[in-house]
Amino acid sequence: MDPHVEDRLADLTLGLLSDVERVAIHSHTEHCSRCLAELTRMEETVSALADGLVPEPPPSALRERLLAEAFGKRRFAPFTDRVARLFDLTPADAASALEAIVEPSAWRTSPLPGLLFAKVATGPRVPAGMSCFIAGEPGVRFPDHRHRGTEVVLVMQGAFREAQGRIACAGDELRMLASSEHDFTIVGDEPCVCAYTIEGGFEIL
Hints:
The protein is of the alpha+beta class. It has one domain: Jelly Rolls, CATH 2.60.120.10. Helices cover 32% and strands 29% of the residues. The protein is built from six helices and eleven strands. It has helices spanning 9-13, 19-29, 33-51, 59-70, 80-87, 91-100, and strands at residues 107-109, 115-119, 129-136, 141-147, 151-157, 159-162, 167-169, 173-176, 181-187, 192-199, 202-204. The protein has a six-stranded antiparallel β-sheet with strand order 1-2-3-10-5-8. The protein has a five-stranded antiparallel β-sheet with strand order 7-6-9-4-11, covered by helices on one side. Helix 5 (80-87) crosses helix 6 (91-100). The longest helix is centred in the N-terminal third of the chain and has 19 residues, at 33-51. The N and C termini lie far apart (35 Å).
């Protein structure tokens, strides 16, 4: 069994873990230089990304808008099978995960202005990295970044546009390979909601 906790560090950095989980991981990093170095790298990446984003409305306003405009009972049910494949879940577990994000308590604020994250438990075949649901307001821009591993984004609502002009809308699934680069801006008049996973994180360019 791998004694390290690198597969949990992305969730820790984004505030997706419980108090008990956070304490356990911080306790581990006090005695593990390898995991401490990886945690430091991830925190610096998130900080750099946050510095590059244009300030957006307060998270509370985003949460209210998500509830008012984005959510309804079983709104994301049509994506059940695709979310199951992305996160290596059974259809039943994927359906439960999609129903859970209807609740305000499922969403967490993040270090990234204008974004909310919802934690999701993944199956064993999902590589270590970051896996979650992400919601963002129109106008939020991610600066240019390079992927350390494969990134997959399944758009379930709204749209975003890459600098090269490609637009991803609800139903589109984008797969970016390791060492690929892009930046994008959420467009349209409604929040963008995505299922997201990346292996190994990314670095700001």
